[in-house]
Amino acid sequence: MKMIEVKDYQEMSKRVAEYIIEKVRTSKKLNLGLATGGTPVGTYTNLIEDHKQNYTSYQDVTTFNLDEYVGLSGDDSNSYRYYMNDQLFDHIDIHKSNTYIPRGDASDMQKECLDYEKLLTEHGGIDLQILGIGSNGHIGFNEPGTSFDSNTHLVELAPSTREANARYFSSLEEVPTKAVTMGIATIMKSKEILLLISGENKSEALSQLLHGEVNESFPASVLRNHPYVTIIADKAAIAAE
Ligand code: GLP
């Protein structure tokens, strides 16, 4: 794993956006894996700015998101589909039909998982995956204990994850208890991975990622087995390291 140290959240967002823009501009066709949560918001803002100023086009880009809450439709303002439209897709020239996110309101969620995995394979897999990390080491919604062999699957969210994400809902009770997520094996199939880590509250996770053991009790540790991972971490996340 390679690590790039940056000053703060703003610089991380700028650097990650520049990296994505370069890929978008130089690839004939790009399968981009995207993440939600607070961490990539600044990156998406930078992509939008660049699209407005420099007309970077996303017409040949296909996106695949990591995860979605079970039980929320795409119109629900807490769904990750809504987040992606709002934070990025509505502001760039991407074809909405080329933006894939697992459906949290599918009538058959097991089938939805299988279909999503198949869709990724049929498209030839992800070229560049953007990742954030939970403070318990989760990636996507793969909580501690998830098998490294897992494909897209349904998960029960850890209480700490629901608490961390409750800031977006009116109450903790409203945070869904289940989600659908790309599995660890799905994520590991990406050709390249960019992991964004910002803020003091992520410093323990960063430290464990760099120095802890590779095992399923800390899902992100699997990334140490991937040949092409770059961590972009800011000073606050590195401080306690
Ligand atoms: C969420 C998402 C993850 C995200 C992580 C960190 O639960 N499912 O994809 O990377 O938790 O979120 P944040 O960036 O808000 O700290």
TrEMBL record:
Residues 10-224 form the Glucosamine/galactosamine-6-phosphate isomerase domain. It catalyses: alpha-D-glucosamine 6-phosphate + H2O = beta-D-fructose 6-phosphate + NH4(+). Pathway: Amino-sugar metabolism; N-acetylneuraminate degradation; D-fructose 6-phosphate from N-acetylneuraminate: step 5/5. One of its GO terms (molecular function) is glucosamine-6-phosphate deaminase activity. Keywords: Carbohydrate metabolism, Hydrolase. Pfam families: Glucosamine_iso (PF01182). Its EC number is 3.5.99.6. The active site is at D67 (proton acceptor), N136 (for ring-opening step), H138 (proton acceptor), E143 (for ring-opening step). The keyword Hydrolase applies. InterPro entries: Glc/Gal-6P_isomerase, Glucosamine6P_isomerase, Glucosamine6P_isomerase_CS, NagB/RpiA_transferase-like. Belongs to the glucosamine/galactosamine-6-phosphate isomerase family. NagB subfamily. Catalyzes the reversible isomerization-deamination of glucosamine 6-phosphate (GlcN6P) to form fructose 6-phosphate (Fru6P) and ammonium ion. This is Glucosamine-6-phosphate deaminase. It comes from Metabacillus rhizolycopersici.
